[in-house]
Structures are given as C-alpha cells and as structure tokens.
Amino acid sequence: MSMMSEFKEFAMKGSVLDLAVGVVIGGAFQKIVDSLVTDIIMPVVGVATGGIDFSNRFIALSGGPFTTLEEAKKAGVAAIAYGQFINQILTFLIVAFTLFMVIKGVNRMRRTAPPAKV
Question: Where are the transmembrane segments (predicted)?
C-alpha cells in the first residue's frame, strides 16, 4: 500500500473528519466567547470595580509613564499585561464550563438511551 493511499484511508476515517469539524466549530465558538468576555463581562466587572479596564492593565518593566499598554508596546517597552491575562482566564473558564455542560448532556443521553437491539 502506497503512502498516499494510506494517508487517504487515514484522512477519510470518520474520527478525523469529526475532529476537523470540531476544530472549525471550536474556532468560531472561541470568537463568540472572546466577544462575551471582552464586550459584555469585563465592562460589568470594570463598573463593579470602580471603572477599571482590565484589558489595559499592565506593568511596564522599564521606565516611562505609559498610560496604555499600546503606548508601551509602541515604545518597545517590555510589559506584563496582567489584565489581558485575566481576560484569557475568564475566556478559558467559560469554554471549559461550556464543554463540561455539553459532555454532561451527552453522557445523560447515553445513559437514558434504550439498549440497541442486535
């Protein structure tokens, strides 16, 4: 069997196609979650914490009074962008919780499905 025919057989298996669909849908879902965190959750958290914009919270590692992270990056200053890290943690937690709920639902359906007749 040639390498190309082996690869074709591997690529056409159902699990590989399912994985490809999952990756594409996951990418689209990631954009939705990013928007949820950035555009909906973080503004509410900012208001609750006295107007703090977490996406722009940073520590400049070398001099200069920079007011925004973008300003520090344009100046070539190394900065620890801990606010963006907080946003990414929230994004991860939302994705993880969503996947947990999906897997929990699938497991519930598997348990309640009648046994297949042979």
Answer: 85-103
